[in-house]
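Lab notebook: predicted structure, single chain.

Context: the supervisor wants predicted structures on file for every construct in the current expression panel, including those that have not yet been purified. This is the next one on the list. No modifications to the sequence; it matches the entry in the shared construct table.
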Amino acid sequence: MADSSRAARTAASRSHGIRATGRRRKGPTRRRRALTITLCALVSCVLLAGAGLGFVYYQLNGNLKGVDIDAALGADRPDDVDNGSMDILVLGSDSRAGDNAKYGSDGGGARSDTAMVVHVYKGHKKASVVSIPRDTLISRPSCTKGGQQTPPAQHVMFNTAYEVGGPACAVKTVESMSGIRMDHFVEVDFSGFKKLITALGGVDITTTKPIHDPDSHLDLEPGTHKLDGEQALGLVRTRHGVPGGDGSDLGRIQLQQTFIKALMDQFKQLGVLSNPAKLYDIGNTATRAITTDTKLNSVNALVGLAKSVGGIGSDHINMATLPVTYDPQDPNRVLPLEAANKQVWKALRQDRAIPKSALKDSAGDKGGTSNYVR
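Prediction complete. Output recorded below exactly as produced.
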């Protein structure tokens, strides 16, 4: 098992109805604009800040929460391939417990609102990120939570794995889909994301179309805006707020890409690594916001991760959505393109680049908001 890992420092490309303000670098091609995650931005902030957090190790360690995935899953897992690569499952939880209650009822169980597999290649100079749409209909393995076993199920949404079995079941489901053992797990919830944006001082974006979604507490006219934590959360959650969007998770994923780029660009411009007070505020917020596996739930481990992958730039990160097609019986669900999925997972198992042929027929880059790219 590699000790250090990884890169969620990923800049998404052009927007789908919004764009990041300020100087822009040349973005990846449309086919590569498949990053589904807001979480990527959060984890990146933890890692980037981590390099300067040595002086507050012990103060921040107590903020972190850990889940012992190895103990929960036992030996019934893919082989632990020690080839220098690393795989991390990053999840966003949509629990409505505690501070999240204002966002509605979850029916008594949280689900994984956002999910991605980050594969860091041998040498830790490049990475691939594969987003798994929450609405993907999959075969879920049996899972145990609190001593109670849930039997396997067919044709159920991917995000139900977290609901019935928590992080361990989400990891087990991804491992059964991919045949790849996850080395680490990272999770954040709604309130944690919102608090991080607030600690950063908000994020600047420019909307090219009106975005109105009362369910996501979002009301933006065309123009430039500094989004506070609540507005930022609304933007990355909205399914129906963009005119012309298809209301699916794929459309929301495209909006998230642009927001992540704006967030990452702004973080770099803040100069927090030379500002101890700001660095501590962000580190304190970020470490309170995340839950990790027990091998990663210390500031020391996060700093090691940051140092290991610090040289990976956005031009060395390949982003892809798991190849899917819309379910003809329900346009709000997507079905895996099995042959293409096998190509994606095989490539990562063998520590190779994801072949473009595996992504060409996927609906992952066609979530309905691409008409507003500028």
